[in-house]
Write a structure and sequence with these properties.
CATH class of the largest domain: Alpha Beta
CATH superfamily of the largest domain: EAL domain
Radius of gyration: 24 Å
Oligomer: single chain
Shape: elongated
Helix content: 40-55%
Strand order of the largest sheet: 6-7-9-10-11-12-13-14
Number of domains: 2
Distance between the termini: 48 Å
Number of helices: 15
Strand content: 15-25%
Number of strands: 14
Structural class: alpha/beta
Length: 350
């Protein structure tokens, strides 16, 4: 049984609603009343407003008001109730910020992508820096909108975080990475990105991932799950539980953006990943920067000590690749070799 939170996308309530509006201060509440009273049937109560209107029209109107600051919007909360319902203690559990509702209103493209499973994977090769042979492909998600245009991953994930659809998006990306890798007949390894905050219980949230891989007869040892934005992880124990589960199933794990901050370096001792991905900011122009070179050397020593391979991402020039090879970095990835593309590369031509 799949988690409803991961498989059901939120909807904007349709039709006419009794809309209950709260604000953190009387000033903000009075400001809302001043702007909306000429447009809607609205009344003041002791600590809130009640407006009866088509909810989507209400959202569109308030979203287009220019007189509210970003902080004010964050401090306005709304509950849309059916007309026959009254405000009760239990209905307060369904309160959402105005910011959430506005973001959901503008997230129709993302919702369409999730509801129709239109995630397309692009594949970027990961090469052995000593032989330039392709050893794996990173699966990079792109959203295909209803009009056929592409929604970039950063736009998708930022919007998903703001609308409580991160669980849905991360799950769908894992599914499509496994499915499309099999369809493309990739025999090398694959790297699949995931966001730790989209998984609240690995035993439950990841059982679909394991089932898909089993059903498609994937070689689990060739699948590496890569933690994205590892430098932003706050709950290391939670992440450790996730990685432990993946490893128990036979998968490998990788940490990205190493070297971009103390927190990510600090996690190495706790997590012992199979692969360390060096942040692209450290790779750029490394052949002309002794400080970057010294940091990479340190990461190589750490990798050797914990038995992890080191992968340099964002390689864009021959000079960068040559120095990294000389330093002993195991793996490389970047536009110098090949940009992400729909069809997985079979060979690198330089």
């Amino acid at each position: 049984m799949s988690c409803e939170k991961c498989t059901t996308t939120p909807n904007i309530p349709s039709g006419r609603k009794r809309i209950v509006v709260f604000a953190s201060t009387d000033h903000i509440l009075n400001k809302i009343y001043m702007h909306l009273s000429p447009l809607f049937e609205i009344r003041k109560e002791t600590d809130h407003l009640i407006c009866e209107a088509e909810f989507e029209t209400f959202l569109k109107t308030i979203a287009n008001l220019k007189d509210f600051t970003e902080i004010e919007i964050e401090n306005i909360t709304i509950i849309p109730l059916d007309l026959e319902k009254s405000l009760t203690y239990s209905s307060l559990t369904r309160v959402k910020t105005l910011e959430y509702w506005i973001n959901l209103y503008f997230a129709s493209d993302l919702k369409w992508i999730l509801d129709n499973s239109t995630i397309k994977m692009f594949f970027q090769p990961i090469v052995d820096l000593h032989t330039y042979e392709i050893v794996a492909h990173e699966c990079l998600a792109r959203g295909m909108k209803a009009d056929g245009s592409i929604m970039p991953p950063n736009v998708m994930f930022n919007m998903a975080r703001k609308t409580e659809m991160l669980f849905n998006l991360d799950r769908l990306c894992r599914l499509q990475a496994i499915k499309q890798s099999k369809e493309k007949d990739i025999h090398e390894g694959i790297f699949i990105n995931f966001t730790p905050n989209s998984i609240y219980n690995p035993e439950f949230c990841l059982k679909d991932t394991v089932k898909w891989a089993k059903d498609l007869s994937m070689d689990f040892s060739k699948v590496t799950f890569e933690v994205v934005e590892s430098e932003k992880v706050v709950n290391i124990k939670h992440l450790k539980d996730i990685l432990t589960y993946y490893r128990k199933m036979g998968f490998k794990v990788a940490l990205d953006d190493l070297g971009s901050g103390y927190s990510s370096l600090n996690m190495l001792a706790e997590l012992n990943p199979d692969v360390i991905k060096i942040d692209r900011k450290l790779i750029e122009n490394i052949h002309n920067d002794p400080t970057k070179e010294a940091i990479v050397k340190s990461l190589l020593k750490i990798g050797e000590k914990i038995g992890a391979k080191v992968l340099a991402e964002g390689i864009e020039t021959k000079e960068e690749a040559d120095l990294l090879k000389e330093l002993g970095v195991n793996l490389g990835q970047g536009y110098y070799f090949l940009a992400p593309q729909e069809e997985p590369a079979k060979k690198i031509f330089l």
